[in-house]
Design a protein that fits this description.
Bound molecules: heme C
Number of strands: 4
Low-confidence stretches: 22-36
Number of helices: 12
CATH superfamily of the largest domain: Cytochrome c-like domain
Structural class: mainly alpha
Number of domains: 2
Distance between the termini: 105 Å
Helix content: 40-55%
Radius of gyration: 27 Å
CATH architecture of the largest domain: Orthogonal Bundle
Strand content: under 5%
Order of helices and strands: HHHEEHHHHHEEHHHH
């Protein structure tokens, strides 16, 4: 190699090193960007789904710092109704939920998927907005709910029997709101408060509720399943007071009616629900109906005459 050749060789090596350095620098700079996009699917895990059900207010609630992530207006968590983040079998347990979809929904008048059903709870029970179906949050929740179905498959018949809800026989009378208030004052206020507002995490409301509100601005809206007196009465009889449910049918019926007679967020466009009005559950608290019973009777009973009317209608 002569001096000239040596010079150009050094130049080539230096150029290569420089190029390499630029490439490495560029890769380093680009890496976080790439990682971020790669994270979208990897964050959508069952574990994240479980957290979303348990810490909904913290992750999707009105106090979340990123306004784009504020999907629920209420500070409830899904777990306020689906106890133990849905793991507890029995009333409103989610272990069998995944297997129920896709299915026809009278409320929407069409086929619904598990994602549609989660969004119904987002919009009604959580008084919020639907999550995009391809969002990591929805994918994670669906994955988590699916993982619970394995647990369901492993449940033996005797275990299943142990978690069957206690029988609830609808009293053959209208619910008594005054009696319901008495039950509430005696059995519910210790946790849910005398004003039904529950107990917000003292350190920081972003953590949501220690004891959830039963009515008021932060509660489920008028379109929620829990706003139906019979749904609420069955849940309350099976689950409340939390840990030692001991109400009889009359008490559960009256206190459910009392809770649901209290103010809560109004869901708009409820008249569009149940396009086939004959599929509307008798205890739906809003019209229009395919019958002439007064709204008051649909809200508080007695329900047997309404049930008899629809039984006759389907027999014809
Ligand atoms: C205020 C109470 C409440 C809250 C909060 C709530 N749900 Fe629900 N959820 C219900 C009721 C009531 C039903 C109807 C159960 C039925 O049809 O028997 C239901 C049904 C469901 C179902 C269908 C279950 C099945 O077996 O078909 C899924 C899935 C579900 N909820 C997920 C969620 C998720 C996820 C959240 C939070 C984003 C949530 N729910 C929040 C009350 C609630
Ligand atoms: C020992 C405390 C305690 C008592 C007493 C109690 N609850 Fe609850 N309740 C809870 C907790 C906690 C939850 C949420 C579930 C969870 O976080 O595990 C809940 C959830 C609920 C829910 C669904 C969520 C919501 O915000 O609407 C209803 C409805 C309810 N309770 C009604 C009642 C009624 C009616 C009584 C009285 C008969 C009652 N509870 C008594 C602790 C209690």
């Amino acid at each position: 190699m002569n001096e000239n050749e040596k010079g150009s060789m050094t130049f080539i090596i230096l150029a290569c090193l420089a190029l390499g350095a630029i490439t490495i620098a560029a890769t380093l700079k680009l890496a976080p960007e790439k990682e971020r996009t790669a994270k979208v699917p990897s964050i959508a895990t069952e574990e994240y789904g479980k957290r979303l059900l348990g810490q909904t207010a913290e992750l999707l609630g009105p106090d979340v710092s990123d306004p784009k992530m504020r999907f629920t207006k209420s500070r409830l968590s899904c777990g306020a109704c689906h106890l133990g983040t849905g793991t507890e079998p029995g009333t409103l347990g989610l272990p069998p939920a995944f297997g129920h979809y896709p299915r026809f929904s009278g409320r929407t008048g069409g086929q619904t998927t598990i994602e549609d059903r989660v969004n119904e709870c987002m919009v009604r029970s959580m008084n919020g907005k639907p999550l995009p179906k391809d969002s990591p949050q929805m994918i994670a929740m669906a994955a988590y709910i699916r993982s619970l179905s394995d647990q369901d498959a492993a449940t033996g018949a005797s275990q299943r029997k142990a978690h069957e809800p206690p029988p609830f026989k609808t009293p053959t009378r209208a619910a008594n709101l005054d009696a319901g208030k008495t039950v509430f004052m005696q059995h519910c206020t210790a946790c849910h408060g005398t004003d039904g507002a529950g107990l917000l995490a003292a350190a920081n409301p972003i953590h949501g509720y220690v004891f959830p509100p039963l009515w008021g601005a932060d509660s489920f809206n008028t379109g929620a399943g829990m706003h139906r007196v019979l749904t609420a009465a069955r849940f309350i009889k099976a689950r409340m007071p939390l840990g030692k449910p001991d109400l009889n049918d009359d008490q559960a019926f009256d206190v459910a009616a009392f809770v649901n007679s209290q103010p809560r967020p109004e869901m708009p466009n409820l008249e569009a629900d149940y396009p086939d009005r004959k599929t509307k559950p008798v205890d739906t608290g809003y019209g229009p109906f395919a019958d002439d019973f007064p709204l008051e009777q649909h809200r508080y009973g007695p329900f047997q005459p309404i049930e008899a009317y629809y039984k006759k209608l389907t027999k014809k």
